[in-house]
Fold:
Amino acid sequence: MSKTSTRVLAERVREFAWRLNRRASAASAGVGPFTASQELIAVRIFQRPGLTGAELARLLLLTPQSINATVATLIEGGWVTVERSETDGRRRELHLTAAGCQAVEQIRSARSAWLSELLDERLSACQRADVKRALDHLDQIF
Structure:
């Protein structure tokens, strides 16, 4: 594959990932108690418990100020707690509460159901197998 066609492929994958993420967000809108920014942060904390606000800011390419403001609303809502690290008392780690985990699970479940339904409706069994093989290849990148 030429360098040009690899770039075209990379662009298509990137655009698809962006569209998938946007449409999945729309499919789960109103499912949980979160605003879009709260959902973004709560899902990341769910995926990687113990992150600090600064680590979230770097991961999500947002300012620490916006992360801190949104985390404060999540704490006030009872969805996130802040705990001091057992190994470094200066480190303040973010964790979801049981209510926060439940809300994120509802969102993830709605997104998975939406995508599962689309895959079943619009792709044949053979095409779904092709998608699985493509994902297996993409998993090798990371």
The mean pLDDT is 94.
